[in-house]
Amino acid sequence: MGKKSKVGKTRKDKFYQLAKETGFRSRAAFKLIQLNRKFGFLQQSQVCIDLCAAPGGWMQVAKQNMPVSSIVVGVDLYPIRPVAGCIGLVEDITTEKCRQSLTKELQSWKADVVLHDGAPNVGRNWLFDAYQQICLTLHALKLGTQFLRSGGWFVTKVFRSKDYNALLWVLKQLFKKVHATKPSASRKESAEIFVVCQGFLAPDRIDPRLLDAKYVFEELDLEGKQKNSLLHPEKQKRIKAEGYTEQDIALRNDLAASEFMKAENALAALQGIGSIRMDDDRIVQHKKTTKEILECCKDLKVLGRKDIKGLMLWWKHVKADLFKTEETAVIEEPEAEQPAKPLTQEEIEDMEDAELQQQIETLADEEHKDLKRKRKKTLKTKAKLHEKMNLNMVIKGDDGPVEETEHEIFDLKGISNTHELDAMLDVEPDYVEEEPEAAPKLPKYKKYDKDDKRMDDDANYENDDEPDVSAEEDEESDYDQDGLGLSDDENNDEDKATGKKKPKKNHPLIRSGDFRDKDTKRQQRVQLWYEKENLQTLMQDEDNDDDEAYDLDNISKAYRAKGVAILGENRLALEDDSKPALGKKAKRRARHDGPKDSSSESSDSDSELEVDDTETGDKVASSMTKASKPKKVRLNEEELALGSLLIRGKKTRRDLIDAAWNRYAFNDDNLPEWFVTDEQEHMTKPQPVPKELTEEYQRKVQELNVRPIKKVMEAKARKKRRSTKRLAKAKKMAEKIMENADATSQEKAKQLKKVYKKAQEKKKETTYVVAKKHTSSRRARRPAGVKGRYRVVDPREKKDKRSLDAKKRRDKGKSGRGGGKPKGKRSK
Fold first, then answer.
1. Which of 658, 661, 652 is CA-nearest to residue 689?
2. d(CA 171, CA 160)
3. In the beta sheet, which residues pair with residue 197?
4. Catalytic residues
């Protein structure tokens, strides 16, 4: 269920609030203010009559804008609260008694302005309410013509209705100029407008019929009632539906559907017809005879232009399907009885010429329609472009992004039936002939190896720069690069991933005499590789190392059995024991310190303990990545200014770098600290930084330091919000006090003063607490019963304050005109 809201709440707009704040009795006062601002009729007026003046807002505006000695008289059915300097009358403006009361008040004065803002109690019926209001306006005009001077003004409110033009014609007969306007203070949804009449003609005699509502607003039937023209309905104004005449109701002009279909002209047949009666089942069962057509045929009087067009289209299709065939059959029957006459050669040529001419005319007509369609499309495009250029959406000469494509883009609008869709689906998609293979990543540096040479079948070294002759040799070179060619996992994986096999291309002219298979060649190549001299010596060295290691193990076991300590084992054991004992701070310090130079330790450890590089590779990499980050350097103002000069331009940067090389520069190491400090102080060239730039950075730093912290800003915002709430609350209380009609002005002033005094922020008082002797030595605590701010004082502070005040008074006495003598004891 919807929430019910009060009607009065929606009427309290900004002008309602302004009226409350400025003291006007109604928001309608701003309507008169805006009308006077536009036409200026109150400043030169001495006498003003306000008809239907309650509650008195227009009287207040008139008194404020008119001269001091002016007369303002307000008339209304209800009593008006007194307005300073104005006269209020309780009368009905439609009676003679009201005219007599106005004559008694004004005596011999003539009014310069007559205002009327009256309206009856609305809500019964809009037409009735509008007529009552316009009659009330005519009564106000009648009263105004009796009191207005020549050249006076008449301002009235009018509801727009069918009688508005008649009232406007009456006003134009009595005034020189008539202006109709709607001020912004008037609500947009309201039907009221204001008519300002300037320059009253003051005729000697006015025809009473000119101010009679029955005569002025009489409905005139100057032209007979015209029938609806179905042939050209757009050339006539739409006539308001007023029902049917008695003749139409009695006769009920119906037309049979078969007769309507046989008619030559559908519009002429429908003229003056009330309905179409369905008398033929074929018409009812036709596919074009819809429910909407049947409903339209029941009553033609209520149809609009669109419905009439629909009936004409239905007449055309049904007639072509049902009644044209009958006519052609009737015509063809007598022709069948007569024998066909043979056509002569001339008649045949004439018929061919006629058909050719008809085809030419059809093509010309189609071409003309096509040109017309293109011209219309071009004009529409130009209009859109012109509109975009006016809105600065398109730059002249800029065609925008253009998409370049080899083939036409697929367009869904081009498919109009299922055959085209099937043809579109049957098209084979475009395939890329060969996907480009990604080039293998080569290492930046390649270690030289004297054994990295390939031998051919004749035991000759091959040159790497020469191209390979056969695919077999390519495979062998791949095996050499991968090692001994014993595992082809990587190559097989690549072949599986790509899904392609490299074709074997043997040169047709070169033939090898070696008929061994691949496996045999590979095993023999491995055996040859192991038989090299350098490899044999290396394998012997490894055997010797193993023997030495075995001997050392046996010796160390013998020493341990005798109880002799081994030097290397103790140090390694100590290191192993100390590693897990590191705490969090030690680990953090070690991580921040980074790697240190330990060449001697590494040499010892290499001789005593061997470490596998493959196992420690990950650890080394992780320690390298955890390098300490450089600390942020805080620059002073001169360094910031120098940095801004470095990024200003290439020339400035080059000059600054060149100026850094001077006779004061040195790069000596191992100098005493006192000497380096003295050189930096006395043997340093000043930086070429402008003083203004340095001062600017100093000012920026000061602004950052002066800016208050977040807590201070939040506290100020809370304080401001509290004060705003207090003032808003006080404002509401003041409005209530001002609206109180029972209180006098003095009482209102006292209450307002009390309210605003309460709304002011109270000054926080400081409580002074005298320190005692037994509490002076220690830190003072908040005494019992003391709330808010407090300050601990002692007699010594009081004496010091007194002495300072006395000194100020003495200094003030010395600086006077006479230069007063200092007070104190006279010296003997």
1. 652
2. 15
3. 154, 178
4. 157
